[in-house]
Amino acid sequence: MNTTPLAERLRPRTLDDYIGQDHLVGENSVLRRAITSGTIPSMIFWGPPGVGKTTLATIITNTLNRPFYQLSAINSGVKDIREVIDKVKNQGLFGGNNAVLFIDEIHRFSKSQQDSLLGAVEKGLVTLIGATTENPSFEVISALLSRCQVYVMKAFDKEQMHTLLHKALKDDEILRGRDITVEEDEALFRLSGGDARRLLNVLEIVINSVEGKVLITNDLVQETIQENMTMYDKSGEMHYDIISAFIKSIRGSDPNAAVYYLARMVEGGEDPKFIARRLLILASEDIGNANPTALVLANTTFDAVAKIGWPESRIILSQCVIYLATSPKSNSAYAAIGAAQAAVKETGDLSIPLHIRNAPTKLMKDMGYGANYQYSHNSQGNFSIQEYLPDQIAGTAFYVPSDNKRENATRAELKRLWKAKYGY
């Protein structure tokens, strides 16, 4: 009996078999041209789970016929990295140089672990391919990041999921031997969430739950998955569902639900820094100036979690989560920058009023730069009415205070200062 998972049985071996990421490996794409030329840079694949990061790294290595070494940041340390580098050095002219070192979940490596890679990457002893679900700008040290090309990988769209589904039913030897009809696929795709590996896992679970003829419907998929799938998978298959429920519970001011989803992530072995980073974003996006201290606490939480780690970080995170969930909510700062960016895209580089321009030279002063500028601190109450926006958008209120105690006071103060100018 073949116990190899469907996702592994269908893993592509060549670029022509690879589904998705056309912007990277499609015809005449930048990465495909590099692979074809035989010269690839060290690189980092950044994207959600199940989009083919590991598979693409393997295909690249096989295509270029290079030695391939693979480490997982979850269970590898500096010692493991040095052992690989020593192996490459010792092979020398017998094929060691230009080896590919693939590191899965590279965002979980510490600074010292990443530092240990620098020399080998810089000298070209190894070509590094890292895979991460986190923004490498935050998680990869700048010295290493500057030596790598970052390629963003996208979740599968519906058309690609259709292609993968039909490929599985048509090409897999085991599934070909079953009588399988897909009557409905909405639940399959919804539960997969753009994750190819998860789609194949769900499909296999559903098919194996039925003896004889298999008629795949939305109801069958939903019922089967609820009975069989674990509620949180450390590999990340439920990663985005849980974090979405977590964030929405805090935004919805439900500390009980928020702590429950936090516990799900704690028990699932989620990276505490990932959770803390999402709390930092939420503190500004969903609480903002309704309670500015929320951002301070969230930032302190991130620093504390980075120092402490599991299991004690769960207490720090719980305190922060409850504080954020019970804080007044406002998305006015988030809305303000969004509105301002939209205005910039629509209107372009509007002329800045002369009186608030910098005038470091005599010529600029003669041209009127800085003329008639009123220094606010020289006026009563440290405020003087003057125009700061370009003429074309004068009076535009990008910031609209939300209805909460602190911002209602802010609204009243802005109205006192600016009268009817901004409609407060």
Question: What is the fold's blueprint, element by element?
Answer:
Blueprint lengths: L5 H4 L12 H4 L4 H8 L5 E4 L6 H12 L3 E5 L5 H14 L7 E6 L6 H12 L3 E7 L3 H4 L2 H4 L3 E4 L5 H14 L1 H4 L3 E3 L3 H7 L3 H13 L5 E3 L1 H11 L10 H13 L3 H13 L4 H16 L5 H16 L4 H13 L6 H16 L14 H5 L38 H14 L6
Parallel strand pairs: 1-4, 1-5, 2-3, 3-4, 6-7
Helix pairs in contact: 5-6, 9-12, 11-12, 12-13, 14-15, 15-18, 16-17, 16-18, 17-18
Determine the structural class based on helices, strands and strand pairing. Answer: alpha/beta
- Architecture per CATH nomenclature, i.e. the level-2 architecture of the largest domain: 3-Layer(aba) Sandwich
Which CATH class of the largest domain is shown?
Answer: Alpha Beta
The helix tally amounts to 21
The largest sheet, given as strand count, sense and whether it forms a barrel, is:
5 strands, parallel
Order of helices and strands: HHHEHEHEHEHHEHHEHHEHHHHHHHHH
User: What is the distance, rounded to the nearest whole angstrom, between the alpha carbons of the first and last residues?
Assistant: 72 Å
Helix content: 40-55%
CA radius of gyration is 27 Å
- Here the CATH topology of the largest domain equals Rossmann fold
Look at the structure and give the mean pLDDT. 84
Number of strands: 7
As a percent range, the share of strand residues is: 5-15%
Shape type: globular
Low-confidence stretches: 230-237
Count the domains.
Answer: 4
How would you name the CATH homologous superfamily of the largest domain? P-loop containing nucleotide triphosphate hydrolases
The strand order across the widest sheet is 2-3-4-1-5
